[in-house]
Amino acid sequence: MDTQAPTAVLIHRGKQYPVRAGSTLRDAILRIGLSPEAVLASRAGELVTDDTILKADDEIRLVAVISGG
């Protein structure tokens, strides 16, 4: 990744993943090797959808979705 490009950060299980700002959250999640359907994303405590466009300096927390019956 170009270090001069604006970046956002995805945080999953305590690990930080810098991703390119301007991309969709879905693309960024896929780029770090996760399934968008397997995580919930929040920015500043508010849930965001996977079509959210990432802004420079965004910090997005990803939490695994747990299902069961």
Notes on the structure:
The structure is a single chain. The protein has 69 residues and is mainly beta. The protein has a single domain, classed as Ubiquitin-like (UB roll), CATH 3.10.20.90. The chain contains one helix and five strands. A five-stranded mixed sheet has the order 2-1-5-3-4, with helices on one face. β1 and β2 form a beta hairpin. The protein is globular, with a radius of gyration of 12 Å. The mean pLDDT is 93.
Summarize the structure.
This protein has 69 residues and is mainly β.
How are the SSEs placed, and which strands pair?
Layout lengths: L6 E6 L2 E6 L4 H7 L7 E5 L2 E3 L10 E6 L5
Parallel strand pairs: 1-5
Antiparallel strand pairs: 1-2, 3-4, 3-5
Would you report the number of β strands? Answer: 5
* Biggest sheet: strand arrangement: 2-1-5-3-4
CATH architecture: Roll
What share of residues is helical? 10-25%
Radius of gyration: 12 Å
Can you tell me the CATH superfamily? Phosphatidylinositol 3-kinase Catalytic Subunit, Chain A, domain 1
| Average pLDDT reading | 93
Q: Alpha-carbon distance between the termini? A: 41 Å
Q: From the helix content, strand content and strand pairing, which structural class follows?
A: mainly beta
Per DSSP, the total helix count is: 1
**CATH topology name:** Ubiquitin-like (UB roll)
